[in-house]
From TrEMBL:
It comes from Rotaria socialis. Residues 73-106 form the DDE-1 domain. It holds the Pfam family DDE_1. GO terms for cellular component: nucleus. It comes from the Eukaryota. GO terms for molecular function: DNA binding. InterPro entries: CenT-Element_Derived (IPR050863), DDE_SF_endonuclease_dom (IPR004875). This is DDE-1 domain-containing protein.
Length: 106
């Protein structure tokens, strides 16, 4: 704490994006969506839901040993969608794993 050093997890790919490109697209996007009603602009994104996962960290005393097991990789993919004003929030769509995925059909 004295030196301002913190233990954090590195995540995301924010360093791989050129800031000039982001600024250019911010300007373009305003012009593109200006002709639409904000209630008609939707955003959707998916996220993984690990429903059997255990926490990464645990609090133990110095005498106790802290052993972990194999992590569960069972998950659902959840699709979330809402409009720009937040007045129309669609029901989350849950996707489980398929026994016979269509992508391997032919």
């Amino acid at each position: 704490k004295r030196h301002g050093i913190q233990y954090r997890t590195i995540n995301g790919e924010s360093a791989s994006v050129d800031p000039a490109t982001v600024d250019e697209w911010k300007k373009r996007l305003v012009v593109m969506i200006d002709k639409y009603n904000p209630n008609d602009i939707y955003n959707a994104d998916e996220t993984g839901l690990f429903f059997k996962a255990l926490p990464n960290l645990s609090l133990v005393t110095a005498k106790d040993s802290c052993k972990g097991g194999k992590r569960s990789k069972e998950r659902f993919t959840v699709l979330l969608c809402t409009n720009m004003t937040g007045t129309d929030k669609l029901k989350p769509l849950m996707i489980d794993k398929s026994a016979n995925p269509r992508c391997f059909k032919n």
